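retry 2 of 3: previous attempt timed out while embedding adenosine-5'-diphosphate. Reduced batch size to 1 and resubmitted. Inputs unchanged:
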Amino acid sequence: MKLMLSYIRRHIGKFLTALLFLSMETAADLLQPTYMSFIVDNGVKAKDTGKILEYGAIMLAIAAMGALGAVMRNIYATKTSQQIGKEMRLDIYKKIQTLSFENIDRLQPSSIITRITNDVTQIQMFINGTMRIMLKAPVTCLGALILIIWRTPGLIPMIVVILIISGFLIAGNMRLGYPRFHRMQKRLDRLNQVSREFLSAIRVVKAFRAEEEEEEKFRQAAEGLAAAGVSAMRVMAVFGPLINLTVNAGIVALLWISTIQPPAEIGRLMASINYMTQVLFALGMVSHILNSAVRALASSRRVEEVLQEEPAQINHHGELEIRGNIVFDNVSFTYAGSAAPALENISFQAHAGETIGIIGPTGSGKSTLVNLVPRFYDATSGRILIDGMDIRLIDMNILRKLIAVAPQKALLFTGTIADNLRWGDEEAAMEDIQRAAEIACAAEFIAETEYGYDTLLGQEGVNLSGGQKQRLSIARALLRKPKILILDDCTSALDATTEANVLQGLQREMTDMTVLLISQRISTVMKADRILCLEDGKVQGFGTHEELLAGCSAYQAIYNSQIGQGWKDRTYAGKAGAVYE
Ligand code: ADP
Ligand code: MG
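retry 2 succeeded.
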């Protein structure tokens, strides 16, 4: 019920509009017999043509109002219920994407299909019914009863008896109906499951001549569904007519009473009978609606089960447990307003805890590529998965919390060094700040400043060198304890020794962090677990340093220009004298 209400709430305006038109229609229906009785009692009996025409005109106007109400409530009801059905299906679909195979196995794919199709349809029909007739039935029933009692109070005992009997019948109907409809949906699951299994294994079935066995399975499933359907419908078939019978008996009783003690006015008797017919209609409707409600409830519980399924990645603290596995699956990206794509068909995988080096000339798309991971931009085509989940389906806050970026151009603000670092984590303790600064090799120069962590930085950190800014930027990213760390060419201003120390510190201290390490320098990326070599937005090679050196011409070219002949004495290891720039 909560589920349905939550969807209705989103369309409350349209929902209430439908109910408003429905009330209009109901009021019109309720007014007609009364005016009819006025025509008979005040017009026909008094032979007053003027009165007859007057009441007739009023009835016509009321009928027109009722018709308008009926048309409008149908339009609104259909629109709203279809919309809700669509949203519910989409939500289930999205939810399923966040689930692991483990979750899906537990729910069973065939059952998920039934829930997306049939169960949502049941709910949709109920919501539609609510807006079209739900309110009308009880209101008509109540209104008609009040009008009968008001105009002929003598009928009260009879009406009470009718209501008590009908109440029992409706309650019985619901009690017996609910479990049967629930069973019907389950049998439908089973039928879907058998069909699905058969279709996916049809070649095997034919090859092994197992048709008969499969047919038997299908027959059983189909028969099971039919039996459950018959049983559920039987409940409806028994109770519906019983309610009709009760009310019809009431009408007979009313006519009978009127023969014994003739009513003062024929018109009033007519109105009473008319209202009894309306009560009959409404009670029948109520039982019909309750049946539909029972079906919808059974279905909504099944939909809720899917929506409430906890993704297996959620740990026992209720947090998303991400290991940091990243997959680029045929990702292309074109900047808005740009003709040429910045990235084309990028596919690679970074295992959790790995350091992936990304190398390529300026403009090759390195920054663009890593910016897609925290969704600073969304891929134009293809998809990016983190631990098997499409990042577009991960809550943005969760996603951004997982990832820390040290950008190409270090961004620092006016304030103390500690303030700047705390930007990574506002509540960070001083020890954490110091530790992050140590790993980033920033602790040393911070200690040399007069006020240490309380040193004020000028605008954009003007009183720091490029390398110092970069180290602060790395420390800030580390302070967030990310699962995925993106270093976008942010060691470019460091000397080789310091850079090596920073990278070694990362590898030593942050073993379970996936690192995307961008650089234009081969010496920076060559120690990474694997290296992605980019050129013009396309992958030229992906593998270890040795593999690329052996098989990737673009990588070889970069290597030869930087380290090959003439650069031999400047290899990466931070040997004395081996200094870049
Ligand atoms: P790299 O980081 O390897 O130097 P980039 O990812 O920054 O490369 O750029 C890749 C390509 O995308 C370049 O051709 C660049 O001109 C273009 N580009 C980068 N940023 C934008 C942007 N915001 N709008 C339009 N084009 C951009
Ligand atoms: Mg860049």
